[in-house]
Structure formats: C-alpha cells, structure tokens
Amino acid sequence: MNKVKLLTIAVIGLLILNFGVLGVFFFSHPPHGHPGEMPPPFGAPKDGPQAIIIERLHFDEAQQKSYQVLIDEHKKNMNEINTNSRALKEELYALLKSVQVDSSQTNLIIQKIGEGQKQLEHLNFNHFKNIKAICKPNQVNDFNELANELSCLFFQKNGRPPQN
C-alpha cells in the first residue's frame, strides 16, 4: 500500500469519526433538564428534587399529597423573594447610570439583597424541616441520610435549586 492510499484511508476514517462525534452532540439530549445543568448523582431519579425525595423517603400517597402542598407553598414564597431580589438588583445597577453614585444608597440596597438571601436560606431550611415533619418514624433515618446530601443533591453551582 502506498503512502497516498494510506493517508486517504486515514483522512476518511478521521472524518467519519468527527461526524460521529458531532452527531452525538447535536442529536443527543442532556440527561437532566437544560444544557449546563448538573446531572443528578449516580442512582438518583432524573425527575428533579420532588422525585428524589419521594423515592428516597418512600412516601405513600397521603404523604405525597402533603408534600405537594409544601412544594407549592415553597415555590410561591421563593418566587416572591426572587422577584424582590431581582427588582433590588435592577435598582442597584440602575445607580450606575448616575454621574455620582451614592454609596449609602448602594449599601442600603446591597443590605436588602443580603436580607433576601437570608430569607431564602431560612425558607429552604424550614421547607426541609416541614418535609421531615411529614415523615413517619420509620422514615426518619432515611431523611437523616438525605439531609447529609441536601446541598449536593438539590443546589446547583449558582446556589439555586434546579427547577422541576
């Protein structure tokens, strides 16, 4: 076999390999949610935090209904806090349009944003406390195991829980 034939076969092989890799990228869907979203841990359900909790804590139908009420309330409260935080951040960055930025006003807005973050942390903590309250005595150990993994399971790098 001469060098030209060998190089031709190698180039064709590499082209096929490249097209195969590109096909995988374009035609496969992310395993969990949106591009850039963290995949679930090994063995975790792929339907988000709700499914993880129901599966890991072995909730029955009545518990699942109670849990859904908790979720709805939690989402409502989170949306309120996030909407307020977004408005405060818009107000903060609007100050940059001023010729002279008032540092006391800037500090006040940043303090309010921090208070909103504090509210979010309390809200999340109380949400999981309420989940624990609907557990039966034989599920408390499962909840305690889950509690050890909460920050890894439910919060992305940006600190926000994944959306269901």
Question: Given the helix and strand composition, which structural class is it?
Answer: mainly alpha
Number of strands: 0
Q: Spell the H/E element sequence.
A: HHHHHH
Strand content: under 5%
The major pleated sheet works out as: none
Which architecture of the domain at 45-154 per CATH? Answer: Up-down Bundle
CATH topology of the domain at 45-154: Four Helix Bundle (Hemerythrin (Met), subunit A)
Task: Tag the structure with descriptive keywords.
164 residues; mainly alpha; 6 helices; Four Helix Bundle (Hemerythrin (Met), subunit A)
What would you say this structure looks like, in words?
This protein has 164 residues and is mostly helical. It starts with a helix and ends in a 10-residue tail after the last helix. The protein contains 6 helices and no strands. Helix content is 68%, strand content 0%. The protein has a domain at 45-154: Four Helix Bundle (Hemerythrin (Met), subunit A) (Up-down Bundle), CATH 1.20.120. Helix 3 packs antiparallel against helix 4. The radius of gyration is 25 Å and the shape is flat.
